[in-house]
Amino acid sequence: MNKIKFAIEIGGAYTKIFVKDEGFALCEPTLISAEPTPQGYKIIGFGKHAKDMQGKTNDSVEVFSPITNGQIVNYEYLKQLLIYYFDQLNFKRKYDSCLVLINCGLSKKDRENFMTIMHEIGFKEVVLVPTIICSAIGSGKNISSTKTNLVVNIGGANTDIAVINMNSIVKGATLGIGGKAVDVAIANTIAYNHGIVVGVSICEKIKKEVGSLYKNDGLNMEITGVDIDSKIPRSYIISSQDLLEVLVPFFDEIIRTIDVTITSMPPEISTDIINNGVLFTGGMSKINGLESYLRKNFKYPFKIVEDAENVSILGAGKLLDDKDLLKKILENT
Ligand SMILES: Nc1ncnc2c1ncn2[C@@H]1O[C@H](COP(=O)(O)OP(=O)(O)O)[C@@H](O)[C@H]1O
Ligand SMILES: [Mg+2]
């Protein structure tokens, strides 16, 4: 295996690229926009541009991700999107090798499809590595140790929970819930409780700015949407309290799944996990008040890592510099 130059994480919300010796090189939404034409759908926007179109165009324009829950839903669109991302980097399509971060539960067929797309784009060597392993590395964990770690990644489309030791995943679970499901639930809550329709990209902003797990957080923000009955614009001041009914069940489901994962482990492993503390990564771990919520509602020691949404791509960046570790991981996956 030669030295690998690029690493890409095609996340449920954002795609990130790391270039060896250069660093974190790109972060753009994993989105495409397309409109119907007599010849079929035509792509009109990629990444940031597609996201900016969300909810702002006529009904015929669709903004979507060619990947859902880590699985490829549209091969050709994904390929076009990846070409767009790599073109941003100015390597003039001279690509040698790339590490692709994937969900641990990905089917054989999808793994093959990822390889084929990357080859079609021009990469000669393509290596697949589980994203959650990179999250552990990026968080500073020694994944080669016999001591076991439990790593959680709460991302855009799903939440990965994995028990890791000796360069491999002992047990992994993927929940089909992430930040995007929260955005949609916020839109539904506002419509149901206040009779206003608000777009999901505004709901993402609301979640980041006002969303909180503190029971008495006083954050608030004025939002404007369309009144369901009168169809005219109406404003409302949304507060953290409005969002608790979305956020609490979301995090409780994750906590329950972690509990079940830990209790299903043999005592040698669960003792290690408890000693090491559960690691929380992924963009949704940045929600206000998570630390305090976990202290009250989570039985085990834990740590929310800094720069939570970027640890996996930064971990992949470290792997580009550590051929031996990469080799060991590949032997175990
Ligand atoms: N400060 C924040 N508070 C709440 N959610 C956040 C915050 N920052 C990012 N997010 C959410 O995290 C998700 C993206 O996390 P990320 O780990 O990049 O996901 P992925 O790798 O699956 O694309 C998005 O749903 C985004 O809205
Ligand atoms: Mg991610």
Describe the structure.
Helices cover 39% and strands 29% of the residues. It has 333 residues and is an alpha+beta fold. It has helices at residues 47-53, 75-88, 108-121, 131-138, 179-194, 200-210, 240-263, 267-276, 290-297, 311-320, 323-331, and strands at residues 6-10, 14-19, 23-29, 32-37, 40-46, 62-64, 67-68, 71-72, 97-102, 125-130, 149-154, 159-165, 168-175, 196-197, 220-227, 233-239, 278-281, 302-304. Helix 4 (131-138) packs across helix 10 (311-320) and helix 5 (179-194) crosses helix 6. The chain folds into 3 domains: 6-30 and 65-131 and 312-331, Nucleotidyltransferase, domain 5 (2-Layer Sandwich); 136-177 and 246-306, Nucleotidyltransferase, domain 5, CATH 3.30.420; 179-239, Actin, Chain A, domain 4 (Alpha-Beta Complex), CATH 3.90.640. Strand 9 (97-102), helix 3 (108-121) and strand 10 (125-130) form a beta-alpha-beta unit. The chain is built from 11 helices and 18 strands. Bound molecules: adenosine-5'-diphosphate and magnesium ion. Adenosine-5'-diphosphate (ADP) binds at residues 11-14, 155-157, 178-180, 204, 207-208, 211, 282-284, 286-287, 309.
